[in-house]
């Protein structure tokens, strides 16, 4: 089941948040119609996440919907995995000389960074093997001299992609709740 699409009321909630965040930023009704048409394809939670990200990173209010869409996190876990594979091609994270550049780039995506560190390091916070090697199979030692196949590339990818998508969805719901509660607090102050 898909997420709820952006309604006109939710759009107005987001615009009101922008107007309060950037004082004296009034949008006329005719402009609101154009903006809503440009953004109505978004899911509700994604729209609220975009508003929060924009406000957290920009000093001035948006002048057009495209400025907001730059903050759209349409990335899926699959797209992030591909980005990580490409990043690893340039800066092998299991190479002591390249790993700092890999993790510096990886830190641009907070969800991917946290998941990667959680899923793919051992207890000593060491990355012994490159998780992007398709031929490599992971084994776990059960007893001395007895190892059992734990998982391979496809399994590692699936675990990361599923976890990323769940975390992104959760983050977007949190942003939506923050904007909803901010709107309700404003109504209580006026009422």
Notes on the protein architecture:
- The structure is a single chain.
- The chain contains 8 helices and 2 strands, in the order H-H-H-H-H-H-H-E-E-H.
- A hairpin with a 2-residue loop joins strand 1 (138-143) and strand 2.
- It has 191 residues and is mainly alpha-helical.
- Helix 1 runs parallel beside helix 3 (44-57) and helix 1 crosses helix 8.
- The chain has a two-stranded antiparallel sheet.
Question: How is the topology of this model organized?
Answer:
Layout: H1 8-21, H2 29-39, H3 44-57, H4 65-69, H5 77-90, H6 99-106, H7 110-119, E1 138-143, E2 146-151, H8 153-190
Antiparallel strand pairs: 1-2
Helix pairs in contact: 1-3, 1-8, 3-8, 5-8, 7-8
Radius of gyration: 21 Å
Spatial ordering of strands, largest sheet: 1-2
- What form results from the Cα inertia axes? elongated
Residue ranges: pLDDT <50 for 5 or more in a row?
186-191
Task: Please count the helical segments.
Answer: 8
How many beta-strand elements?
2
| Percent of sequence in beta strands | 5-15%
Offer a quick outline of the entry.
The chain is mainly α and 191 residues long. The protein has helices at residues 8-21, 29-39, 44-57, 65-69, 77-90, 99-106, 110-119, 153-190; strands spanning 138-143, 146-151.
